[in-house]
Amino acid sequence: MTVANAAVTPMMAQYLDIKAAHAGALLFYRMGDFYELFFDDAVQAAEALDIALTKRGKHLGEDIQMCGVPVHSAEGYLLTLIRKGFRVAVCEQLEDPAEAKKRGSKSVVKRGVVRLVTPGTLTEETLLEARRHNFLVALAEVRDEAAIAWVDISTGELRVMETTASRFAPELARLAPSEVILSENRYSDLCDLIGDTGAAITPLTPASFDSASATKRLEAFWRVQSLDAFGTFTRAEVSALGALIDYLELTQKGHLPLLRPPQREASGGMVQIDAATRRNLELTRSLSGTREGSLLQAIDRTVTASGGRLLEGRISAPSRDLNVIRDRLDALDWFLADAARLDRIRSALRNCPDIQRALSRLALDRGGPRDLAAIRNALAEFPAIVQTLKEQDPSLLSSWEKALHGFDGLSATLEDLLVAEPSLLVRDGGFIAEGCDPDLDEARQLRDEGRGVIATYQRRYADETGIGSLKIRHNNVLGYFIETTSTHAERMMAAPLNERFIHRQTTASAVRFTTVELSEMEKKILNAGSRALDIEKGLYERLKRQVLDLAPQLQHAAQALAELDAAAALAFLSRSEDWTRPVVDDTRTFRIEAGRHPVVEKALKAGGSPFIANDCDLSADLGSKLWLLTGPNMAGKSTFLRQNALIALLAQVGSHVPAGAAHIGLVSQLFSRVGAADDLARGRSTFMVEMVETAAILNQADDKALVILDEIGRGTATYDGLSIAWATLEHLHDVNRCRGLFATHYHELTELADRLDGVVNATVAVKEWDGEVIFLHEVRQGAADRSYGVQVARLAGLPRSVVDRARVVLDALEKGDREGGARKATLIDDLPLFSAAASAAPARTTQESIVEDRLRDVRPDEISPREALDVLYRLKALLDS
C-alpha cells in the first residue's frame, strides 16, 4: 500500500508506510496497550482468531476495517496465527508518547518493526514445544554441490551437512523443520518436496545464497578473520549457512540470536532413513501425527526438556560410529551399576530448568527475571551432579563433569540478588531481593511506606514548632504541604521559624507552608515507584550481561546436562523394562533372542497382557539373508517386522534393547515398506505409492541395509502382485544382498527358499479349533499352509452369512486350483454371485461327539482323583479308536 490521499491522518500514513515494507506479513501495530490491525490484515486476523472486526474512520472513501489484541496476551494470538500459516510483523512504539507530544499535538509516536515472527524463528516458551527442536532449515545448491543447514535459535544449535539434492527429502523428514528457506530460483522444483514435511516455505533472493557474500556475513557474525577456525566447508555449505544468517538478520531486526559455531555433520555418520520408513516405524510421531503411540513416547524417560530434545534427535539419526555407540553404552552400564547413583543424578536433573532456551531469550532481549532464575536454579544443582560424577572411573563421563565447573561466582551472584520466585517480566519489578542495593531499598520503602515517612515528618514539625495541631496534607495542586490554623500561623511566620517554613497559601480557615526537605521528600515519594523499577532494570541488565559473558560455557554445560539426562533416562528405562545391552560391531551379524516390540509391549502391559517374545537371525557372513514370513493377518507379522527394525535402531542409538540378547552388525540404511495409503493430492493410488516406496528401496539399499517389507504386490491383481513380489525378493537377494524380513500372503513364494541360499521360510504360528483360529504370536521356522483370511474376517464381525458364503467360495476356488483351469472356468456358473439362493449357505450344524456324550455322565465333584484319571484314559482311548 502507498499513501494516495491527502486526507490520510498522520498515524494512518505511518501505518501504511510500515505495512508497505512488510507486505507479506500481518502487521501488529502497537497503540498503547493493544496491537491493532487494519484493512485486509484485520479481516484475515479477525477470522483466524475469531475476534470482533470493527471500523475506524475512512480511507479513500472506504471504511477502515480494524481489530486488535491486548499486548499482555499477544503470545497466544501469535501462536494461533503462526499455526495457521501467517507471518507477523511486530511494530512497537519506539518512544514515550509524552515525547511525541513535545513536538506538537498532532505528532505521531515513532514506531518501527522490531521483529518478524515466523514458524522457524520462535523463542517464546509459550510458542514452543519444550521437548522438540524448532528448526529453521536452508537448502542450497552451488553448481554440482548441495548442502543443508539448520538452526534452532531457541537453543543456539547450528549444523550443516554436505548432501545431494536427491537427499533433501529424507533429511527434511529427519529434521522435521518448522520453516525452510531456499532460493526463489528453486521454489517451483522443491515446493512439493518441502510441502510434504508440513514446513512453511520461504523463498529468498539468490543474493542471500551467494557463497562469497555468505563467507563475509558469517565472519562478521562470529567476529573472526576466517571460517577455518570452525572447520572446512564446501561452497554449498557456506551458502546454506549464510542464507540462514541473512534471514535471521532480516527477521530479528538487529537482535541476533546466540548461536554456537556451526558444526559439520557427515552424512555417512548416521543411519539413512527415508520419510516412508520414519512414518511406517512411527519413530517420533505415530501415523496420526501425534507423539502418543510413537517409539519416542514409549521409551522417553528423560527429566529435562533438553534431554528430551537430544533423545529425539538420536532416534531420528542413529549413529554408525562404533566408538560413539560403545561410549553411550558404557555410560548406561555405569549408571546401571549403582541404582542409588542413578536415582541421585535423575533427582538433581529434575530440578534443572532449560538453560539453552533461557540463554537464547536473554540474548534476543526477549527474556526476563524468570530466565535468570532458571539459570540460577540449574547452577544450584551442578555441585551435586559433579560430586556424583566424581565417583566414576576417571576415563568415563569426564567431559560431562568438566563442563559443569567454573560457575561458582555467577551462581552466588544470582542466588544473592534474585528472589525465590521472580516476576515473568522486567516491567513487573520485585525480582531483586531486599538488602542487595541500598538505593533500591530506600526507593521501595518510600514507595510502600510513604504515609509513614510523612507521619514522621509531621511529628517532627509539631515538636519543632510546638503546634500540636499541625498537619501535613496533600492535594493535586500543591502536593504535600504543612497546614495550621491562622492563629498558629503567626508563630511560623515569625523568626526564627520563618527561615525554615516557607509560606505557600492562605485560605479562609488555614495557612499552608512547606520546607525544602519536605519538597525533596515529596519528589522522592512520587518518583519512588519508577525509581525502584529503574534500579531493578539496571541490576537486571548487569545480571544479564554476566550471564551472557559466560554464554559459551553455559551452552557447553547445558549440552552436558542433556547428554547426561539422555544416558540416565535410557539406563532407567533398561532397569525398569528389563532391557539388555546389545553387541554392536562391524560384521553382518543380526541375531536377536527373545526380541520384543517396545510400543506394543507397553500397550499390552497396560492392559495386563504379556508380550510373546520371538527370535530373529539374519546373520550372514557373505551375501544376503532374508526371512520370508507367512501366516494370517492379526497373527503378529507386522509387529515382528517392526520390532526387529526398532531393536536395530535402538542399538545404534546407543541404547539397551528389548530382548534377551542381541548382536547387531552395523546397519547403514533402514528401509520399511509396511502399510498401505494413497496419495490423492498427487494422483497416486495405494498401489502406486507402494511401488514408488519399493522402487526407492531396491534402487538404494546396500549390503549393510536392513529392509522390512510387508505384503508387496497386494494392491493389484493376484498374479501381477505375485510376480512383483517374486521379482522383488530375488532382487533383494541377488542385487542388494542385504538383510531383511519379507512378509507375504503369497504362499507360492515359499518355494524360493529351496532355490535361493539366503532365503529362509518362517511363519507365525496359529491353532485352529472347531473352525476358530487361535493366534499364538510365535515365529517359527517353516511356511504357513494358508492365510486363514475367512476366520479373521469372522473375528472382524462380518455377518455370519457372508463368512459362510466365503467358505463355500474358498473351497470351490481351492478345488479349482487342484483340478486345473477348466474347473475355474465353470466356477461362475456353479457359484452365481448375484443369486440370493446361492449366497445363503446352509447353517452349520454340530453333531455331538461320543466324547461329549460320555462327559455328560461325569460328576467331577463326586469322583476321586483316581477315578478322574480313569475317565481321562477312557476318553483318550475313544479318541484314538
Automatic annotation (TrEMBL):
ATP binds at G631, P632, N633, M634, A635, G636, K637, S638. SMART domains: MUTSac, MUTSd. The keyword DNA damage applies. Pfam families: MutS_I, MutS_II, MutS_III, MutS_IV, MutS_V. Keywords: ATP-binding, DNA damage, DNA repair, DNA-binding, Nucleotide-binding. InterPro entries: DNA_mismatch_repair_MutS, DNA_mismatch_repair_MutS-lik_N, DNA_mismatch_repair_MutS/MSH, DNA_mismatch_repair_MutS_C, DNA_mismatch_repair_MutS_clamp, DNA_mismatch_repair_MutS_core, DNA_mismatch_repair_MutS_N, DNA_mismatch_repair_MutS_sf. It comes from the Bacteria. GO terms for cellular component: cytosol. GO terms for molecular function: ATP binding; ATP-dependent DNA damage sensor activity; damaged DNA binding; mismatched DNA binding. GO terms for biological process: mismatch repair. Gene3D superfamilies: 1.10.1420.10, 6.10.140.430, DNA repair protein MutS, domain I, MutS, connector domain, P-loop containing nucleotide triphosphate hydrolases. Residues 705-721 form the DNA mismatch repair proteins mutS family domain. Belongs to the DNA mismatch repair MutS family. This protein is involved in the repair of mismatches in DNA. It is possible that it carries out the mismatch recognition step. This protein has a weak ATPase activity. This is DNA mismatch repair protein MutS. It comes from Silicimonas algicola. The lineage of its organism: Bacteria, Pseudomonadati, Pseudomonadota, Alphaproteobacteria, Rhodobacterales. The gene is mutS.
